[in-house]
Design goal:
Helix content is 40%, strand content 18%. It has 292 residues and is of the alpha+beta class. Bound molecules: adenosine-5'-triphosphate. ATP binds at residue 59.
Length: 292
């Protein structure tokens, strides 16, 4: 019965979740240029805002999700979050409206490659101090969110875009204020596997966990896999890191007790940066600005 229901939901979504075609004018103002993504809850477009004569990002709740607790409430929450934020490295909410009986919102477009594209398509590599500097810059944004009791919960390389040499954090679809439930459906995260419980807990340490995995991604850009793969080796065995960086990552990804606050984390990040810079013998600030 469950499989039949899932099958029918899939067919229904395929039938009704057709994105608006390029050229369509939404709400008399937003000209669709292209679909940027079809996420679990919504459809994201690149648009020309005809009134302001600038490009922006428009998000629409998937029509198949209207009337469900995974549709409008998810976007209402994301809108409420963006409304509260005012930071140069976070896209601003520009507009919200109902059109064609569906909820839409517009936000600033961040232009540039995301870190996933930089690494996997452009082949960028980062030394240990360079990678630590990236995390230090991201920590500024994370601290801003945490000072507003907001946890992003989805800090990943595709959600960080490099615009004019500065990192921007996007996708607040999973962000939650401290004290709010972690999911829309269950009251707690017990139903999920251990890793998902850790990264989706509404606690600052979830974002530190995201930063830890982010850092590992950056550090793996200089790793050359051996000819014969060995799945048993851990990141600590594969990556030749300064012990200060190893200790930092162990706490971020919660092998060791997590950081309690951003000051404590910043202190260890800065220490790891300066110690690893000595080993790498490079002016990483300069190289970082040049490479990225
Ligand atoms: N403000 C923005 N500026 C530039 N690109 C953006 C912006 N917001 C989203 N995008 C891009 O649009 C695409 C869709 O993003 P979005 O976060 O809306 O949904 P998703 O990632 O496809 O779905 P889900 O959130 O369910 O994972 C992604 O490629 C993302 O990089």
């Amino acid at each position: 019965m469950q499989t039949l229901k899932a099958w029918w939901q899939g067919i229904y979504a395929w039938l009704v979740d057709r994105p608006y075609a390029a050229g369509t004018l939404i709400h008399g103002r937003y000209r669709i240029e292209q679909v940027l993504g079809m996420g679990s809850y919504g459809i994201t477009y690149l648009c020309l805002d005809a009134a302001a004569n600038t490009r922006c990002v428009l998000k629409q709740v998937r029509p198949s999700k209207l009337g469900s607790n995974k549709g409008q409430p998810v976007y209402e929450y994301e809108i409420a979050v963006l409304e509260q934020l005012d930071h140069p490295q976070i896209p601003k909410l520009l507009d919200r409206f109902t059109y064609d009986r569906q909820l839409f919102f517009a936000m600033e477009l961040v232009t540039g490659p995301n870190l996933e594209d930089l690494i996997f398509e452009e082949g960028r590599t980062m030394s240990e101090p360079e990678a630590l500097l990236v995390i230090l810059e991201l920590l500024d944004i994370v601290e801003y969110l945490h000072s507003r009791e907001l946890v992003h919960r989805d800090i990943r390389i595709p959600n960080v875009i490099l615009q004019n040499g500065s990192l921007h954090l996007i996708d607040f679809g999973l962000a939650r204020y401290l004290g709010d439930p972690a999911t829309y459906i269950e009251d707690n995260l017990d139903a999920y596997v251990w890793e998902k419980q850790i990264k989706r807990e509404v606690a600052f340490k979830s974002d530190y966990w995201g930063l830890g995995h982010f850092l590992l991604f950056l550090l793996y850009t200089t790793f050359s896999a051996p000819e014969v793969e060995d799945d048993t080796r851990t990141w600590e065995e594969e990556l030749d890191l300064h012990p200060a960086t190893q200790r930092l990552i162990r706490r971020l990804i919660q092998i060791d007790p997590p950081y309690e606050n951003a000051e404590e984390l910043r202190r260890d990040l800065e220490a790891a940066f300066s110690l690893s810079s000595k080993v790498h013998n490079s002016d990483s600030k300069l190289r970082y600005n040049k490479t990225i």
